[in-house]
Amino acid sequence: FRPTGVNRGATGSARGAPPQRLGAPLSVAAVLFAMPAAFGEESRRPAAPSPKAVEAMQLLESSDPYQRQVGFLRLEALREPSTVEVITRYLESPEIEARAYSLRALAAIDGVAAVPVLLERLRTDRHPQVRRAAMLGLEPLQPHHPDILPAFIKALRDGSTEVRIAAVDVVSRIKDPRAREAMLLRQKRERRRDVQRVLKLAMQRVKS
Fold first, then answer.
1. What's the gap between Cα 115 and its chain centre?
2. What is the mean pLDDT of the chain?
3. What is the C-alpha separation between 187 and 200, in angstroms, rounded?
4. Which tens digits make up the pLDDT trace of 93-139?
5. 173 and 152 in contact (C-beta within 8 Å)?
6. Which residues, other chains included, contact 73 with Cβ-Cβ below 8 Å and sequence gap of 6+?
7. For residue 50, is pLDDT > 90?
8. What is the per-residue DSSP string for 120-154?
9. Segment (H or E) for 177
10. What's the CA gap between 151 and 167, in Å, rounded?
């Protein structure tokens, strides 16, 4: 993956800085501590990344796609705020997988604070895999943000079969009259057989 420099809110002296290679842990830590934390003043900066997080960040620059995937998944599982700056740089990567996995990791670490970015990527990214990743990252945050359910309902009309199937699965688990109404409408209008099959199963869950 080759991340591009992405500014995430107020990034202080790190704004616009070129991406740092992850091969040198001290260099990564220096970048992280050069910027103000997303949470506020200097005294509330996140702690330095753990050795496991540093190792995971190093995997992001591996030439092996599987190792890069493992790196993102480990960062998602570790949920260390100090890794957000590095992860955020991959949001604009030309690599589809990098954009997708970085969104999932960002959602896990930043929680509701990541919702605006996730919604924007669900709405605008050209690749279905990335839009689907944004939706899956948003799913556990849905009860905490009013804009997520409308975005999921809109995703039921996405031009990609992959995204529509994911949206059907996600929306069918939401206990909200708007979700049920949207599912019924999609069932009437859907023309793809593979999506229709998923809709049929999902409607059984909605009606139960």
1. 9
2. 85
3. 8
4. 999 999 999 999 999 999 999 999 999 999 999 999 999 999 999 99
5. no
6. 101, 105
7. yes
8. HHHHH-SSHHHHHHHHHHHGGGGGG-TTHHHHHHH
9. helix 177-189
10. 10
Chain centroid to Cα 94, Å, comes to 16
What burial letters (b/e) apply to 174-206, b meaning 16+ CB within 10 Å? beeeebbebbeebbeebeeeebeebbeebbeeb
Residues in CB range of 63: below 8 A, 6 or more apart: none
pLDDT of res. 30: 43
CA count, 13 A, side-chain hemisphere, 198: 20
Please give the pLDDT value at position 60. 96
Each residue's pLDDT tens digit, 29-47: 444 444 444 444 444 557 8
How many CB atoms are closer than 10 A to CB 108? 18
- Does the pLDDT value for residue 179 go beyond 70? yes
| Residue 174 · residue 135 · CB < 8 Å | no
Quote the CA–CA distance of 198 and 193 in Å, as a whole number. 9
Q: Residues 48-74, buried b or exposed e (16+ Cβ, 10 A)?
A: ebeeebbebbbbbbeeeeeebbbbbbb
Give 33's contacts (C-beta < 8 A, 6+ positions apart).
Answer: 45, 48
